[in-house]
Structure to design on (703 residues):
């Protein structure tokens, strides 16, 4: 390895990047756009569920029940109508997700201490949202039922009775269960992968198309030096992207940062090196820039989005797919990012992921170098 | 291992096959240190393949080649340090400036930091690019780009320089200037291996080899190659109708061969005087006006055409005799 040659290639790569303001702009603006777009649109939270109410009973008891819904942050009561038909129409026209119908004798049943029925109509066409909404309804009704029972009992006993079991939930790491805290750290990984796929996948294919690759191969430059120097060139852009993504995550999306900045920097470097080596490998495999770009994007964006645990939990995937996720470097980095951001854990917990990330990086570096030396045949 | 002998390049029975196609067919060449050696042949004759093997860009199928004393199969890294290569396709970075390209190649050729300003100045002066060092390379005219490419290939003062069709697509004046540069380098002691399909350029070489269909069909100095044809007498004919003239002379006993050359004809004959007389008579009979008819010395192109025809004839004879054996 000659640092002089690596330095020469590195400076040349930087000049290419600077000389092409379009791709430089893309490389710096794209992460910001993706982060803002996905960070705000990719909300997995279900709240403020639009709800319509038909109160056939019109009593204080029925109004009390409806007030439970109005008071919850999960439901947004859009208004009251005067027939079940009108509620159904609301669901049909996508105006609401949940309809609440209180029958005529609701108050009577409550007063008599009997089981009081009411009806919930749910739009099940989006099954995921519907089941979350249903669980909110269940929780709310159970809670309200307990309160009613307690107040009935205390009326009988003449003094207030505590509930037999009072369970209090404490959620760690993301106490408000906001999906942005879960999504944004993972998004940092996805964005870096996409930038790498876009930038690096072109580099060698372009040199072949321009005829400069043959020139390079006739000089003392070694394949390993080329791969390393090219990676370092892209790395400078990738490092800026990382800083942007992390800062936007912390200051725009208010994602808590509980871990060690140094560890974040170190693991980001490992990850960036790995994915840029990957892009260079793709570029060395492809014949043309077009193919390289398509393969580059397809092998970086999709796996990182779908198979990294960024959105879809790896534990709930079929065993075969779970096995595949092990070759997706974003999987390890997403875990590391969440660990550092939300849990504030260090190498004592994350060492396994850090080790695998390092293995990926080293393996891909050797593959790319080997592939480049194969070109001499 | 250094180059103790007088040979800068030794090629021995070199063969390169691509699948069924034999691009280089048992080629053997020796090039002296300090020589300008020309490799002449039509497109697809195997010139570039030989050069690319010598530069370590292709592996030979069989045979041996050494460059600066190093075997191409076993010591490609040493060879790359001792050669400059200018490929057929322009291969500098279009989006960098002249000066940045020079800096880049200085870096990868490992030119010592102290020597770099001096080498850069030399290349800029040689390529006449001193005023243009901050120009983006893409914007340079073709001939200037070629000179810059040559400059970048000699930054590290390589003992051996491989130039693959360095003047293709360059105007004649720029080509002339480029050859002046090649001579300067040769005088400074560098060995130059240059391919071309321009016949006139072949005359500038110290020695040359003619290659066709992957095989060397002749080698020697330009003068010695022409001597091979000196037994023949060549007449140049410019007339009012080239094709009619050709037809009129086809069956003329004094005429051995007629070939179209530029706007006229090259006529191979036994005896210039007798043939001229017959030609004038034949053309007059066909109402063809003669503008010029005189004896000329064979050019490199004549040599080349004659040799290729001879090769085709012997091959045809060989296949014929092979056929008759069956």
């Amino acid at each position: 390895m000659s640092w002089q040659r690596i330095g020469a290639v590195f400076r040349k790569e930087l000049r290419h990047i600077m000389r092409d303001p379009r791709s430089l702009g893309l490389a710096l603006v794209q992460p910001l756009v993706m982060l803002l777009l996905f960070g705000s649109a990719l909300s997995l939270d279900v709240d403020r569920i639009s709800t319509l109410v038909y109160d056939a009973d019109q009593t204080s008891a029925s109004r009390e029940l409806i007030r439970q819904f109005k008071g919850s942050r999960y439901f947004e009561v859009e208004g009251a109508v005067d027939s079940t038909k009108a509620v159904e129409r609301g669901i049909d026209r996508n105006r609401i997700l949940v309809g609440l119908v209180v029958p005529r004798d609701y108050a009577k049943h409550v007063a008599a201490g009997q089981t009081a029925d009411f009806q919930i109509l749910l739009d099940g066409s989006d099954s995921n949202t519907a089941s979350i909404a249903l669980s909110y309804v269940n929780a709310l009704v159970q809670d309200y039922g307990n309160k009613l029972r307690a107040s009935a009992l205390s009326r009988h006993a003449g003094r207030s009775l505590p509930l037999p079991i009072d369970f209090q939930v404490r959620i760690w790491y993301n106490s408000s269960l906001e999906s942005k805290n879960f999504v944004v750290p993972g998004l940092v990984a996805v964005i870096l992968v996409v930038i790498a796929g876009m930038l690096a996948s072109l580099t060698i294919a372009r040199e072949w198309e321009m005829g400069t690759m043959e020139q390079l191969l006739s000089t003392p430059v070694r394949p390993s030096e080329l791969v390393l120097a090219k990676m370092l060139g892209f790395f400078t852009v990738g490092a800026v992207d990382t800083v942007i993504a992390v800062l936007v995550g912390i200051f725009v999306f208010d994602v808590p940062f509980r871990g060690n900045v140094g560890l974040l920097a170190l693991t980001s470097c490992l990850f960036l090196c790995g994915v840029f080596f990957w892009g260079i490998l793709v570029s060395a495999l492809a014949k043309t820039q077009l193919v390289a770009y398509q393969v580059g994007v397809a092998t970086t964006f999709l796996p990182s989005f779908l198979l990294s645990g960024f959105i879809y939990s790896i534990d709930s995937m079929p065993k075969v797919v779970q096995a595949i996720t092990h070759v997706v470097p974003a999987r390890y980095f997403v875990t590391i990012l969440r660990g550092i951001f939300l849990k504030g854990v260090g190498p004592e917990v994350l060492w396994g992921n850090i080790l695998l990330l390092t293995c990926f990086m080293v393996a891909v570096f050797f593959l790319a170098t080997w592939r480049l030396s194969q070109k001499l045949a | 291992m250094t180059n103790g002998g007088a040979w800068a390049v030794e090629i021995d029975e070199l063969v390169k096959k691509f699948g069924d196609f034999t691009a280089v067919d048992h080629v053997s060449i020796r090039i002296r240190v300090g020589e300008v050696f020309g490799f002449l042949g039509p497109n697809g004759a195997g010139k570039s393949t030989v050069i690319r093997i010598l530069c370590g860009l292709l592996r030979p199928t069989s045979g041996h080649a050494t460059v600066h004393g190093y075997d191409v199969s076993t010591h490609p890294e040493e060879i790359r340090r001792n050669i400059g290569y200018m490929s057929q396709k322009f291969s500098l970075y279009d989006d960098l400036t002249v000066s940045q390209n020079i800096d880049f190649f200085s870096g990868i050729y490992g030119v010592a930091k102290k020597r770099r300003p001096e080498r850069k100045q030399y290349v800029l002066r040689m390529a006449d690019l001193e005023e243009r060092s901050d120009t983006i390379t893409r914007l340079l005219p073709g001939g200037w780009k070629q000179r810059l490419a040559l400059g970048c290939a000699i930054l590290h003062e390589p003992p051996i320089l491989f130039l693959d069709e360095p003047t293709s697509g360059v105007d004649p004046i720029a080509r002339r200037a480029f050859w002046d540069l090649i001579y300067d380098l040769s005088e400074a002691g560098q060995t130059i291996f240059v391919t071309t399909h321009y016949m006139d350029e072949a005359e500038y070489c110290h020695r040359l080899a003619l290659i066709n269909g992957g095989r060397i069909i002749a080698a020697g100095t330009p003068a010695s190659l022409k001597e091979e044809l000196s037994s023949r007498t060549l007449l140049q004919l410019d007339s009012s109708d080239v094709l009619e003239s050709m037809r009129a002379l086809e069956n003329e006993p004094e005429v051995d061969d007629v070939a179209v050359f530029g706007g006229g004809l090259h006529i191979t004959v036994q005896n210039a005087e007798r043939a001229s007389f017959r030609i004038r008579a034949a053309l007059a009979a066909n109402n063809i006006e003669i503008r010029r008819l005189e004896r000329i010395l064979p050019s490199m192109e004549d040599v080349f055409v004659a040799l290729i025809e001879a090769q085709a004839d012997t091959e045809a004879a060989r296949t014929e005799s092979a056929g008759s054996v069956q």
Observations:
- Chain B is about 40% helix and 30% strand.
